Amino acid sequence: LVSRQTDLYCAQMDRGSTKAKVHTKPAKSLRRFHYIVPILVVTASFISAIVVQRLSSGNSPPASKEPVPTVVANAGPVAVRAYAFLMSKDLAGEPLDVLVLDFVGRRFGIDTLRSFTSRAVENLIDEEGPNKLYVRLVLPASKLPERVRSAPLPTLEAAGSIVYYPVVALNCDRFPLQPAFLDGLRSEAPKGGYRSTHSALALLWGYEQGCIDRTSTTDLYNEHLRVLSETIATESFPGDLYVEALALYEFMSEEPVPESILDRVAQVQLEDGSIPYSRSEPMGSTHATTLALWAALEHSDPERSPDGWIVAPGPPAGPPLVQR
User: Fold this and answer.
1) How many CB atoms sit inside 10 A of residue 96's CB?
2) What's this model's pTM, rounded to 2 decimal places?
3) Percentages of the chain per state (helix, strand, coil), in multiples of 5
4) Cβ(118)–Cβ(145) under 8 Å?
5) Are 82 and 292 in contact (CB under 8 A)?
6) pLDDT tens digits for 75-100?
7) Hey, which of 2, 156, 167, 253 has its CA 20 to 30 A from 22?
8) Terminal CA-to-CA distance of the chain, rounded, Å?
9) Alpha carbons within 13 A on the beta-carbon side of 118
10) Is residue 109 over pLDDT 80?
């Protein structure tokens, strides 16, 4: 822009009267000064525009094509900024995050959060490995495509506990849970980190599918709450693991956490509204941002019951597991 305006100005000078070409030496200096003036003016205007934009934006949320839903606005600045960030992205390439957003959208009546679901499900079904079995969250068992219906359950050894327990619990309306499954959850719960958060998900999904008896597993439920609370209290950086534990705790607990817990998330929220994955990976993470939005929404409405993850749950493929 600066170069173009300068060229035009110089061309106008060159097309001037012949008298301009026979100036004395001081006049040539004046002419060079006239060449410099437009460069300085345009550059100053450009810098001023940037300064004004920065000063006016402050910590305001990034622009979004969609108005912020009332339920999100009521959940506070962390939710508003996270929502704006997520709505500015094409998340179909992050299918597991989209499944969480679909659940949050159904739970809180935010239809815009479900706008990525159909394409994300298509991408997930095409994946190799057990992740395709997560589509049971949004598709009834009767509507699962053949590629999902024919996929075997993963083994603990091959998939690891973080994937194995949630996937097996989620699909227990087609594959009955084995009695050792509860023992596995009891073993995972106190280990902390993502092993605890994912075993909590497995317990919740087992409840929803009717595969795990709620009344006899109260102590297991409370153990997960204890570990989630401990994770929130001890995690040094409020990144992905912190907000995952926070969202699950808010979902499962009858009492919301103190405001200071959410304030920690606000302190690390980036200018674009995203949440960093961790201190060592400070770039914004769609997964962490999704969880922060969920946590803020749960915090603003603590009366909701801890269910609603699975579309058309149950019936279980076998008798519900009872803790003895």
Assistant:
1) 15
2) 0.80
3) 65, 0, 35
4) no
5) yes
6) 999 999 999 999 999 999 999 999 99
7) 2
8) 75
9) 3
10) yes
